[in-house]
Each structure stands twice: as C-alpha cells, then as structure tokens.
Recover the amino acids of this structure.
C-alpha cells in the first residue's frame, strides 16, 4: 500500500530543507516499525537532494548506498572524492574513477590510477584503463 502523496511531499521537504519542494522522486510502499518510511528510491532521494554526507554514512554499512554514492560522485565529476574512496578499498569507486578520467580524455591519469590503486590481478581495471572505453555505466537515474 502506497503512502499518500501529501505525506511524502512533506517528508521530502524536510529532507531537502526546502519548504517549497514539490513531489518527491520516490514512492513510499510502507513504514518501518520505527515509524519512518520504507520507500523506493530512498538512496536516490538523498543523492538528488545533494545530501551526500548522509548517503556516505549509510554507505559505511550498506553496499547499495555505497554504490549509489559512488555513482553520484561519478555523475558530478568528483574525481578527488572517488579517488579517496578507491584508496580506502572501494573497487566500484576505482572503476568509476577510471571511467570518469577516460571520459574526460585523461587516459594517462586513468592508467596511473590503475598502477597505484588496482590490486594485483584486477584485469578488468587494466582493460578499462587501456582498452576501448565501454558504454557508460552505471546509467544515471531517470528524471
């Protein structure tokens, strides 16, 4: 059962600290026992609202949040932050950093990142840095 649009709009306004915000980019399908919304797209909602700090906290223990944060950083072209996450062992951040650098035409920088950060035997990272650049991934969220 979906929650009422008015309730969700109010939650979205609170999250974005914007009393004029319109429809939220997600739908609530229920409520957690704590009284909070259990909704589709919560991570997208945080990313779209620019609340990457909150997303980063969730990313410490939630792989979906980690991947969503990495994707947002990639989409915003934040190479330094992707690099910091890759240094910390986040392979998704590493791969997205390589893709970002390659998309910018910074092939040498992408290859340097692989030399510095990729683990031994990470053939995919090597191919990504040296071979033809595959189609964009991950796709950006719709809307």
């Amino acid at each position: 059962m979906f929650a009422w649009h008015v309730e969700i709009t109010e939650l979205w306004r609170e999250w974005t600290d914007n009393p004029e915000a319109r429809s939220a980019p997600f739908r609530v399908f229920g409520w957690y026992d704590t009284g909070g919304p259990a909704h589709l797209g919560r991570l997208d909602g945080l990313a779209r609202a620019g609340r990457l700090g909150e997303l980063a906290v969730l990313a410490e223990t939630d792989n979906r949040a980690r991947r969503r944060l990495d994707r947002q950083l990639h989409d915003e072209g934040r190479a330094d932050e992707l690099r910091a996450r890759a240094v910390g062992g986040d392979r998704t951040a590493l791969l997205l950093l390589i893709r970002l650098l390659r998309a910018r035409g910074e092939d040498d920088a992408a290859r340097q990142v692989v030399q510095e950060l990729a683990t031994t035997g990470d053939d995919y990272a090597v191919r990504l840095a040296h071979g033809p650049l595959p189609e964009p991934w991950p796709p950006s969220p719709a809307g």
Summary: The first helix runs from residue 5 to 16. Residues 102 and 133 are 7 Å apart (CA to CA).
